[in-house]
């Protein structure tokens, strides 16, 4: 081997790719959510949107997009579908007509009670202890933060 030849740290084997493990886990977990969310009439993107709103509505469209990592073109039809279902309403701000807030309706607030057990059911399905769950969640958040920081100019 030449002195200036670089030896890679990681192989090109599929089962050794972190990206593929994340992709597979994400796909399977989203599939596990599907029947639970069908029971309450939501898709997974709608569910995570409602999670933000249940936590801190009203939220501006801009804030909602930032929280979920969605652009306006993806978020707008998602919120429109939630609005058509009677779960949220959009309101232009009086102080800035360009800004739109999303707030929960009574039905949207009531849906929270039907969704309350979903995280526990998913955690049970994952088969992780509370400690393993917390460790994995913190590790994935650190991973996301690191990648986001490396992609930012």
TrEMBL record:
<protein>
    <submittedName>
        <fullName>MarR family winged helix-turn-helix transcriptional regulator</fullName>
    </submittedName>
</protein>
<dbReference type="InterPro" id="IPR036390">
    <property type="entry name" value="WH_DNA-bd_sf"/>
</dbReference>
<feature type="domain" description="HTH marR-type">
    <location>
        <begin position="15"/>
        <end position="145"/>
    </location>
</feature>
<dbReference type="InterPro" id="IPR036388">
    <property type="entry name" value="WH-like_DNA-bd_sf"/>
</dbReference>
<dbReference type="InterPro" id="IPR055166">
    <property type="entry name" value="Transc_reg_Sar_Rot_HTH"/>
</dbReference>
<keyword id="KW-0963">Cytoplasm</keyword>
<keyword id="KW-0238">DNA-binding</keyword>
<dbReference type="InterPro" id="IPR039422">
    <property type="entry name" value="MarR/SlyA-like"/>
</dbReference>
<dbReference type="InterPro" id="IPR000835">
    <property type="entry name" value="HTH_MarR-typ"/>
</dbReference>
<keyword id="KW-0805">Transcription regulation</keyword>
<dbReference type="Pfam" id="PF22381">
    <property type="entry name" value="Staph_reg_Sar_Rot"/>
</dbReference>
<keyword id="KW-0804">Transcription</keyword>
């Amino acid at each position: 081997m030449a002195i200036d030849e670089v030896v890679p740290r990681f192989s090109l084997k599929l089962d050794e790719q972190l990206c593929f493990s994340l992709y597979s886990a994400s796909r399977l977990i989203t599939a596990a959510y599907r029947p639970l969310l069908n029971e309450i009439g939501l898709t997974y993107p709608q569910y995570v949107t409602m999670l933000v709103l249940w936590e801190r509505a009203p939220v501006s469209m801009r804030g909602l997009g930032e929280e979920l990592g969605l652009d306006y073109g993806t978020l707008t039809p998602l919120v429109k579908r939630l609005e058509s279902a009677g779960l949220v309403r959009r309101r232009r701000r009086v102080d800035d007509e360009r800004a739109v807030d999303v707030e929960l309706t009574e039905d949207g607030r009531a849906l929270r009670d039907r969704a309350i057990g979903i995280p526990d059911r998913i955690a049970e399905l994952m088969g992780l202890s509370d400690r393993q769950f917390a460790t994995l969640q913190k590790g994935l958040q650190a991973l996301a933060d690191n990648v986001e920081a490396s992609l930012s100019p």
